[in-house]
Amino acid sequence: MPLIFVRVRDNRRVTLKIRIAEGAAPYEQVRAQISEQARSGALPVGYKLPTVRGLAESLGLAANTVAKAYRALESDGVIETRGRNGTFVAAAGDAASREAASAAQAYAERARRLGLTEDAALDAVRDALRAAFEDAS
Fold first, then answer.
1. What spatial distance separates the first Cα and last Cα of the chain, rounded to whole Å?
2. What predicted TM-score, i.e. pTM, was given to this entire model?
3. 14 shares its domain with 45
4. Which residue range forms the structural domain that includes residue 109?
5. CA 50, CA 35: separation in Å to the nearest integer?
6. Please, are residues 73 and 79 in contact by the beta-carbon 8 Å criterion?
7. DSSP string covering 61-80, please?
8. Same structural domain for residues 24 and 85?
9. E strands, the chain, where?
10. How many Cα atoms are found within 13 Å in the side-chain-facing hemisphere of 90?
């Protein structure tokens, strides 16, 4: 299991741990693990990620595999590329919160147009969340 150490601004050492196992595509494993570590705070906002080539070499993967994972993470708002300065963990929680609030607003407007009561709309949301989080387990 490769471990990559990079210093963060406050001189703390943060370890990026990527484990490539059989099952999901390697780029998806890299994407999912970096995303989870960023959302959990294990990779703090502002953490400088390894270069595409550097991470690919450490993991024994093709550079295009890591580049695909980085593109997906950037699209999801988890990381941001700052040109030649590198790739950093973005304030993903803020982006995720904004997107969730937007989706909630759209749902609330749709539920009202459908004539649902507030309790019925909340029940539908609870059922959907329960199903989504059970599927993720």
1. 24
2. 0.60
3. yes
4. 93-136
5. 15
6. yes
7. --HHHHHHHHHHHHHTTSEE
8. yes
9. 3-7, 13-17, 48-49, 79-81, 87-89
10. 18
- Confidence at residue 1, expressed as pLDDT on a 0 to 100 scale: 46
Give the separation between CA 30 and CA 78, rounded to whole angstroms. 13
Q: What is the pLDDT of residues 60-71, one digit of tens each?
A: 899 999 999 999
Please give the pLDDT value at position 99.
72
SS3 label, residue 116: coil
**Could you say which DSSP state residue 48 is in?**
E
| Rounded distance between C-alpha atoms, residue 123 and residue 136, angstroms | 20
Q: Is the pLDDT of residue 21 over 80?
A: no
Predicted pLDDT of residue 126 = 94
Number of neighbours of residue 101 by Cβ within 10 angstroms? 10
- CA pair distance 18, 26, nearest whole angstrom: 10
Q: Are residues 14 and 64 in the same domain?
A: yes
